[in-house]
Specification:
The chain is an alpha/beta fold. The chain has helices at 43-47, 53-57, 64-73, 115-118, 141-170, 183-186, 209-221, 236-240, 272-293, and strands at 5-6, 18-21, 30-34, 78-81, 127-128, 132-133, 138-139, 173-181, 197-200, 226-228, 248-256, 261-262, 267-268. It has one domain: Aminopeptidase (3-Layer(aba) Sandwich), CATH 3.40.630. It has 9 helices and 13 strands. The strands form 4 sheets. A 7-stranded mixed β-sheet has the order 2-4-3-8-11-9-10, sandwiched between helices. Strands 1-7 form a two-stranded parallel sheet. Helix 3 crosses helix 9 (272-293). The protein is globular, with a radius of gyration of 19 Å. 40% of the residues are buried.
């Protein structure tokens, strides 16, 4: 049976790719990134998906941008994705391509592939949470390339600019990639208390241990259970931007969604403000620690 060919063109001129928060005074040697909190779904994409809006949103890190915004207001530059992760995932390498998704994939191309691609979670996702297919056929390779050019590349260009600016001012930079995790994952380790935060550093490869230990300690003092590199050890941004020889370090933080939102209906709960205040306070405290650490 021949796969259905799905053709549509997105008007990228109408899309704001990201929001950036640039304090007048960069107070700390840190940059924040929220690559999966975007909620905007292009109408052309939605019209050609077999899923509804809530199903497409199921992979997003809901409200993470809002959680960490107070930290940006305190003097930490931040970039947050506007576009839904179901449309394009900027926390993947742009060469992580599932060639089976495209009816006109070029024969001369040599896909790198990865385990994530094979299960449908490459830079252009084929599925969302609970393994739901986004399309009922194959899409155009040309349209996928437009997503990379018009969304993926501008996001990473801006993120790199922020990191470079930080290094220029302080001589070093800690990039913190901010995410959330489903509460169901936080309970699967069969322990008495679910994980509240996961802090990842590629198993001690992306930054000095003192950075992780300080942030973990700050959150633990607030009564949260913090895990180290489990259930996540770090993603593409954590890996790709880490350059210790150039004094560029990375951390990834994951927040249990059950702490701050009603997951089934995509609404903040009554504890949201407490979580936002606590996380932002800990990030600012880490910033002060970093200033002293490099003296």
């Amino acid at each position: 049976m021949v796969e259905q060919h799905i053709n549509f063109n997105v008007n990228y001129k109408k899309i704001d790719v990201f929001r950036e928060y640039l304090p007048e005074d960069m107070r700390y040697p840190m940059v924040l990134s929220s690559p999966h909190s975007g909620q905007f779904i292009p109408e052309e994409f939605l019209a050609n998906s077999v899923l509804d809006v809530n199903e497409l949103r199921s992979s997003e890190d809901s409200f993470v941008e809002d959680i960490i915004k107070p930290a940006a207001d305190l003097g930490i530059p931040m970039i947050a994705m506007n576009i839904s992760r179901a449309f394009i995932d900027v926390n993947r390498d742009k060469i992580e391509i599932d060639e089976t998704m495209y009816y006109d994939y070029p024969q001369q191309a040599n896909p790198v592939g990865s385990r994530r691609c094979r299960v449908g979670l490459g830079v252009i996702p084929r599925i969302v949470s609970q393994n739901k297919n986004i399309y009922n056929g194959q899409i155009s390779w040309e349209e996928a390339q437009k997503r990379i050019k018009n969304i993926y590349e501008p996001y990473h260009k801006k993120l790199k600019q922020l990191v470079d600016k930080c290094v220029k001012k302080f001589g070093y930079c800690l990039l913190i990639d901010c995410h959330s995790m489903p509460s169901s994952i936080c309970k699967i380790m069969d322990e008495s208390k679910p994980v509240d935060f996961c802090i990842s550093n590629l198993f001690d490869q992306s930054c000095p241990a003192q950075f992780f230990e300080f942030l973990s300690g700050s959150l633990s003092e607030k009564g949260y259970r913090v895990e180290y590199n489990r259930p996540y050890s770090g993603g593409f941004i954590t890996f790709n931007y880490c350059q210790p020889r150039k004094n560029i370090y990375t951390l990834q933080i994951e927040i249990n969604r059950g702490l701050y939102m009603e997951e089934a209906v995509y609404k903040k709960n009554n504890n949201f403000q407490n979580i936002s205040s606590g996380v932002s306070e800990s990030l600012a405290a880490l910033g002060n620690f970093l200033l002293d650490f490099k003296k």
